[in-house]
Amino acid sequence: MKTHDHIDNTMQNASHAQSQSQSHSGESTITDLGSKKSISKQRTFILIISTLVLGIVAGVSSGLLSLLLKVVENFFLGFVESSSMPGAFNVNRWRRFISLTIGGIIAAVIWWLLRNKARHVPSVKKSVKGAQMPFWQTIVHVVTQIFLVGTGGSVGREVAPREAGALFGGLWFQLMHRWGLPSEDRELLVAAAAGAGFAGVYISPLTGALFSVEILLKRVNAETVAVSLAMSSIASYVGGLIHGTDAYYAVPNSPFSWQILAFSIVASPLIGIAGGYFSRASSWAETKKTTGMHILWQLPLVALLTGVVALWGPEVMGNGRALAQTAMNYSAENSGVTVVIALAVLACAKALLTTFTLKAGASGGTLTPSIGIGAALGAILGIAWNYWIPGTPLWQCAMVGAVALLSASQRAPLMALMMVMEVSHLPIVALGPLGMATSLGVATSNLAKTTAHHNKPPQSF
């Protein structure tokens, strides 16, 4: 009996111990769940605050960079660009030449010092992946880009506000990381801030968000879209308060018809091929960019060459706005062979000068140069089109060319489409023909790239 009693007691104790263990395990699980919920709430709160703060900071920095461009233009060229006066057309030709030459010399010296005597400034993509952007070096690098464009250098200025946004995004994350924001969120904040910097300059929230999601993050979910779009929207509003919200390209309000859709189907594949080659040229220039002592003579030489061309064609100066607006201002009724030749020469010159400027050591973008080159090609084809189908607005043909070449050269169709729509304040009905131009431009760009790859001579090993 004692043995049975002992066994019963042992089983009861074991059962009691198991029950206590399960009870403790359950309490531990509940505690863990509660802790995770608390962390999740804290992270969400920090992301909301970060979106607000970085949106404001990116908008302010972009607004200040836009004002800096106006100051440089006014000092060196005696004019300030706008949609009604997009280029230095009324500036004395020799002042244009001198401005470009001096700007090239100063920018060359600054970039040589930055790249050889200071900490390296990583690209936005590398910053998103974790590279730290040194503060003062990045600020000088960003300001130099705006300075070169303001003096007339043939390169885009959209990289500067993106780099400024990425810089502040990284600094803000370091602060928030101490308050519990996980390391995985650094990529999101830096990418969203870079896109917001772009949005603050061109007042284009959708473009800024798509740049973050489509190009930098390459990850589409509710969180990345919400943070990127909200941050770019705030930056656009703040930037607009500083430098205005006028359309970057001034275009008429004529309706889009079936004619422009038909033109888009015919012209976009041809312009897309040109965009593919421009993309290859600019990629080559970035890969072979001069960084050593040679920048001290190569960049001033290219700036001087740009100045020589600008003696007769000021449309090649700056980031491409002047060329694009010029192409959009023509009408089919008043355009003939002379206009076609002029636009063709200017488009080729702009493509070559932008490529040479990047190769010679300048930092900058190719977004707005792509729009300028594409608009010129679109207008050229539009003039020919109007001989067969009269009545197609030439500015719409230029828009088709701009979005086709931009999407082909940047490999980002949605961002390209939204950028042209937003910066020109186009109506929603423009999405049809411009969407078609985007699709066909990218498709033929891929075809041109594939053809070029197959035509390469075999390598010897």
Automatic annotation (TrEMBL):
It holds the Pfam family Voltage_CLC. The keyword Translocase does not apply. It comes from the Bacteria. It is found in: Membrane. Coiled coil: none annotated. Keywords: Chloride, Chloride channel, Ion channel, Ion transport, Membrane, Transmembrane, Transmembrane helix, Transport. GO terms for molecular function: chloride channel activity. The chain crosses the membrane at residues 45-69, 94-114, 135-155, 188-213, 225-244, 256-274, 295-314, 334-353, 365-387. It is a multi-pass membrane protein. GO terms for cellular component: chloride channel complex. Residues 14-25 have a biased composition (Low complexity). Its main location: membrane. Residues 1-34 are annotated as: Disordered. PANTHER family: CHLORIDE CHANNEL PROTEIN CLC-E (PTHR43427). This is Chloride channel protein. It comes from Bifidobacterium aquikefiri. The lineage of its organism: Bacteria, Bacillati, Actinomycetota, Actinomycetes, Bifidobacteriales.
